[in-house]
Each structure stands twice: as structure tokens, then as C-alpha cells.
């Protein structure tokens, strides 16, 4: 697969909010963060996708920092992305998060035709990770693929902030 240039990827990211164009992708910020409680039960069965008890929304403090205590979080990107029919999309946490003690989930493939505000799972094994609301968290990447007549039309198509 061939990774697209950041300038090309930027054409498939709606602004505002601002993005940061890199040589091989586009950096995005977070719009929402949800704590997934350690005692939660998640169910995936056909169209059923639920976590009980509900995830808890995390808001930035008075200084603009998200205070992420040890645990697992769902982090939503702030920009709507669209994956063209000749590409697959991937979302990677920026390496700064790894260097500061956070562990990210591997990205899922965003199929050709996906459009929405995707999410990433982030695990914080340290006591506290403080990330400012204006920080770039993720890099969105597009890679070439063989064009398909079928486009993504699954459960998460058109997903929006909660």
C-alpha cells in the first residue's frame, strides 16, 4: 500500500477545527473523551453495541486540561473525515502519547466510503495523564487500495459526537 501525502489527506478532513498537515497524514484534536469504567460490561451482538454502566464524559478542567486518571477511555476526533473509494483510512495516536505513558489501541481499518467522527481507545496505565484540549492527539492516514464497487455502509457510518 502507498501512504498518501498529508496535503492529499487534508482534502478529506472537514475543517474547522484546525488540523496540522504532516508529510504523511493529518493531525487531529479530540472533541470528546469518555471513561469506560473498569467494572463495565460491553456487548457486541449484531446491531447491539452497548456498554453498561454508561461511559462517563470527561470534561477539561479550568486550565483546559483533560485529566485522565488510570483507566480506559474512548476518545472521539474533532473533525469529520471521509474515506474515498480508492483508499482505506487509519487513525494512529501521536507518538507523544506513547512517550508519556499512554497505551493506545491499534487502529481499525476505516473502509472506503466511511464518513464520520471516528474514535480511538486509549489506555492510561500511569497515575495521571494531563492533555490540553488544544493538543493534537491523532494522525489520520490514507493508503491506496483497489477501488471497490461496494462502499462502507455499516453501523458507524455518519457517526457524530454524542
Model description:
The chain has helices spanning 6-10, 95-99, and strands at 20-22, 25-36, 41-45, 48-52, 56-58, 65-77, 81-82, 87-93, 103-104, 115-116, 119-132, 136-144. By secondary structure, the protein is mostly beta strands. A hairpin with a 2-residue loop joins strand 3 and strand 4. It has a single domain (6-144), classed as Deoxyuridine triphosphatase (dUTPase) (Deoxyuridine 5'-Triphosphate Nucleotidohydrolase, Chain A, Distorted Sandwich).
What layout of secondary structure does this protein have?
Layout lengths: L5 H5 L9 E3 L2 E12 L4 E5 L2 E5 L3 E3 L6 E13 L3 E2 L4 E7 L1 H5 L3 E2 L10 E2 L2 E14 L3 E9 L18
Antiparallel strand pairs: 1-2, 2-5, 2-6, 2-12, 3-4, 6-11, 7-10, 8-12, 9-11
Quick summary:
The chain has 162 residues and is mainly beta.
Q: What share of residues are in beta strands?
A: over 45%
Shape: globular
The end-to-end distance, rounded to whole angstroms, is 33 Å
Gyration radius (Cα, Å) is 16 Å
CATH architecture group name: Distorted Sandwich
Main attributes?
162 residues, Deoxyuridine 5'-Triphosphate Nucleotidohydrolase, Chain A, eight-stranded antiparallel sheet, two-stranded antiparallel ribbon, 12 strands
Amino acid at each position: 500500500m502507498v501512504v498518501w501525502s498529508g496535503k492529499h489527506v487534508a482534502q478529506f478532513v472537514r475543517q474547522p477545527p484546525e488540523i496540522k498537515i504532516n508529510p504523511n497524514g493529518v493531525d487531529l484534536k479530540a472533541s470528546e473523551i469518555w471513561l469506560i469504567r473498569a467494572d463495565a460490561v460491553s456487548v457486541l451482538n449484531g446491531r447491539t453495541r452497548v456498554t453498561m454502566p454508561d461511559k462517563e464524559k470527561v470534561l477539561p478542567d479550568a486550565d483546559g486540561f483533560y485529566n485522565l486518571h488510570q483507566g480506559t477511555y474512548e476518545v472521539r476526533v474533532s473533525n469529520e473525515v471521509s474515506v474515498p473509494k480508492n483508499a482505506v483510512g487509519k487513525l494512529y495516536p501521536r507518538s507523544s502519547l506513547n512517550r508519556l505513558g499512554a497505551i493506545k489501541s491499534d487502529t481499525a481499518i476505516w473502509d472506503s466510503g466511511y464518513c464520520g467522527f471516528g474514535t480511538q481507545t486509549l489506555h492510561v496505565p500511569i497515575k495521571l495523564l494531563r492533555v490540553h484540549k488544544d493538543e493534537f492527539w491523532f494522525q489520520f492516514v490514507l493508503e491506496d487500495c483497489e477501488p471497490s464497487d461496494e462502499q462502507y455502509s455499516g453501523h458507524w457510518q455518519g457517526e457524530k459526537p454524542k
